[in-house]
Amino acid sequence: MTIWPIETLLPHAGRMILLDRVLVWDAERIVCERVVRRGDSFVETIGLPAWAGVELMAQAIAAWNGCQVLAAGGSVRPGFLLGTRAYRADVDAFPIGAKLNIETVRSFHDEDGMGAFACRIDAPGLHAEARLTVFSPPDPTPYLDPRNSLDSKGTAP
């Protein structure tokens, strides 16, 4: 099992990469790590707001996908977070200095790129969990073209 640098696995760049590293991954799951530090993106005086846990989970799924495609000789491509179900966190913020383990386990994934994952964030004294639905199409280009976006009335141009 190859462990690639996190910036190799994600289509994000710079300060928008919220994970520090991959600890372990396989065909069904990944565990990533994040240490909450002052000055990092989204970190406030009390720490990383719990709502940012959804993005940590989404990036862990993206890292899982990156591992899968790189192991198969492909290249990393953007994916999309479609939604979340029942996000629960037992804290308002992940405190400064907390070492977070972010785990995602694949529940469903099809050849067209639709997927569902059970996700959790754990550290001593804290826990968050959710189910995330994602879409990672083989060719994301049509979905990234602004000419394909909906107008303010929800209709395509």
Describe this structure in words.
- Strands 1-2-6-7-8-4 form a 6-stranded antiparallel sheet, covered by helices on one side. A two-stranded antiparallel ribbon has the order 3-5.
- The model has no long low-confidence stretch (mean pLDDT 92).
- A hairpin with a 4-residue loop joins strand 6 and strand 7.
- The protein is an alpha+beta fold.
- The relative contact order is 0.19.
- It is 17% helix and 36% strand.
SSE order and pairing:
Elements (H helix, E strand, L loop, with lengths): L5 H4 L11 E5 L3 E7 L12 E2 L3 H19 L8 E10 L3 E2 L4 E11 L4 E10 L2 E10 L5 H4 L13
Antiparallel strand pairs: 1-2, 2-6, 3-5, 4-8, 6-7, 7-8
Main-sheet strand order equals: 1-2-6-7-8-4
How much strand content do the residues show? 35-45%
Distance between the termini: 46 Å
Order of helix and strand elements from N to C terminus: HEEEHEEEEEH
**Mean of the pLDDT scores?**
92
| Count of helix runs | 3
Helix content: 10-25%
Question: What shape does the CA trace take?
Answer: globular
**Structural category:** alpha+beta
User: Which stretches are poorly predicted, pLDDT < 50 over at least 5 residues?
Assistant: none
The number of E-state strands comes to: 8
Q: What's the main sheet like? A: 6 strands, antiparallel
Radius of gyration: 16 Å
Summarize the structure.
With 157 residues, the protein is of the alpha+beta class. It has helices spanning 6-9, 53-71, 141-144; strands spanning 21-25, 29-35, 48-49, 80-89, 93-94, 99-109, 114-123, 126-135.
Task: Pick out its properties.
six-stranded antiparallel β-sheet, globular, 157 residues, 3 helices, two-stranded antiparallel sheet, 36% strand, alpha+beta, single chain, 8 strands
